């Protein structure tokens, strides 16, 4: 996997070792304090704390996650969607039915 190195540490949920992270929208992006992450072993949501130590989510993290997911959805939509096409009706389309 082409992840960026983070401090090697056990997942607080499953105990398996994690030592890299990859950003969904830009693989060159480095993880920062407050970023959300997913344990590659147990798939649990976690968050980078100080020193990039991964932590379990608390109530405030869940509120922050809703905002982060909305932003991520907008970023992914910009990457995958084209603007809608404006089409002019043809002369046949404007004729009366029947
Ligand atoms: Zn885990």
What are the SSEs and their pairings?
Blueprint: E1 4-10, E2 17-21, E3 36-38, E4 45-48, E5 54-55, H1 59-80, H2 91-94
Antiparallel strand pairs: 1-2, 3-4, 4-5
The structure holds zinc ion.
Spell out the key features of this protein.
98 residues; 3-stranded antiparallel beta sheet; two-stranded antiparallel sheet; alpha+beta; binds zinc ion; elongated; Rubrerythrin, domain 2
Distance between the termini: 62 Å
Kindly identify the CATH topology of the domain at 4-64.
Rubrerythrin, domain 2
The coarse silhouette is elongated
Question: Could you tell me the number of beta strands?
Answer: 5
Structural class by sheet pairing and helices:
alpha+beta
Q: Which ranges are low-confidence, i.e. pLDDT below 50, for 5 or more consecutive residues?
A: none
Describe this structure in words.
With 98 residues, this protein is of the alpha+beta class. It has a domain at 4-64: Single Sheet (Rubrerythrin, domain 2). Helix content is 27%, strand content 21%. The protein is built from two helices and five strands. The protein has helices at residues 59-80, 91-94, and strands at residues 4-10, 17-21, 36-38, 45-48, 54-55. It has a three-stranded antiparallel β-sheet, with helices on one face. The relative contact order is 0.15. The model has no long low-confidence stretch (mean pLDDT 84). Zinc ion binds at residues 11, 13-14, 16, 39, 41-42, 44.
